[in-house]
């Protein structure tokens, strides 16, 4: 019964590229396989775009730009709003699809439909609020008009960890602003984006406004698009090394860029924290999405007086977590995206242990089919351990201690990343100080999850450039134009 439901859903998902409003095979008939990370089995064969397909997608985006920019903001907004409504109707399908291609537990996938959908609703409302200003120049000799124009054709590259939300977080503001777009999902999880493009087509998105390129050769397919002078914007979410390489390519065309890159989030627990809340926050900040979030708490930095109690309480909870396929009832820890991700968790924990850390629970890969790693807690992690420097991207909670606030802040900031920090304290003045001393683009004060379509998401340092969501999100796709007219 369940398997037939999965098969029926997979059958409905397009397997072709979406270019100029048409579904078509890749040039030369190239294909790629999409796998279920819980079983390792192929679940669908889809088109594998080449550079010729990239050129066709670029042509469509460029040819459609003018008419889409002229489409009334209300019309653009209403298309996004209808997409939001239809997504709610299909929430169960989108959730299951994400669980199948990415592995996250179904309940979390449903949560992502909620979160990802909100970008459609938020930007449907922002489309009609794009505004400028008008006034005299200081000399009183002319009128200054400041207006906002769509940047132009945009190339959107998304990662595999949030297949729907990372797509809607870019597509919705781009379309609301009047930009056409080409989206290139991660090759590991392309099905959600294909199914979402079909939904947009159904709610009346004009042909050519959005293209979808699925490919196993991302670098080769992306390079000519980024080099094309008709492209005006590159928005990327993914790892810092790939972001750096894309920024270099974008520099040649002086492209507008948004970069949502890696993180190494500190999670600070002060001696006065409400430990019950800190433990709840820790579990959310660490184990949501099986630890595979750029916002995942990577380093638990806990005051020495409460570290043992904090470790004891989180360990009790983590040891009770159920590992399995995300479609199974009660599972909270699904598979990692692939075996390479499991190998990374193995090596980070081994390195920490070799340098003196203690494993309180977990600490091993799970034998058998699929890419599973046990939910794990390690404590007493020595300075310099790889696990403190690299993104874990897995279900491993690693604890170090601090002595006072200055020590906590120094440890928290000791990373090239600066996406998000979490702070648990009852001292409001301290919380306020940390909003200024933590070198991050976002901070959760006594909360473990803070993403919201109404909030500006983004980082500082090597975590990126730009913000997605909130009032700021649409400005990533708008450019300011200033006009002067003589005194009337
Ligand atoms: P990745 O950098 O390997 O890939 C991201 C996307 O870029 C994928 O679509 C991939 O196919 C594509 N890509 C890879 N190499 C490319 C190239 N040379 N040219 C063009 N495209 C290329 O990252 P990932 O493994 O998919 O995602 C995990 C990373 O994403 C983590 O570092 C995580 O922190 C980060 N992330 C950041 C945010 C954020 O908002 N800051 C959100 C989610 C994930």
From TrEMBL:
Residues 23-483 form the Aldehyde dehydrogenase domain. The keyword Nucleotidyltransferase does not apply. Gene3D superfamilies: Aldehyde Dehydrogenase, Chain A, domain 1 (3.40.605.10), Aldehyde Dehydrogenase, Chain A, domain 2 (3.40.309.10). The active site is at residue 260. It holds the Pfam family Aldedh. This is NAD-dependent succinate-semialdehyde dehydrogenase. GO terms for molecular function: succinate-semialdehyde dehydrogenase (NAD+) activity. Keywords: Oxidoreductase. It comes from the Bacteria. Belongs to the aldehyde dehydrogenase family. One of its GO terms (biological process) is gamma-aminobutyric acid catabolic process. Signal peptide: none annotated.
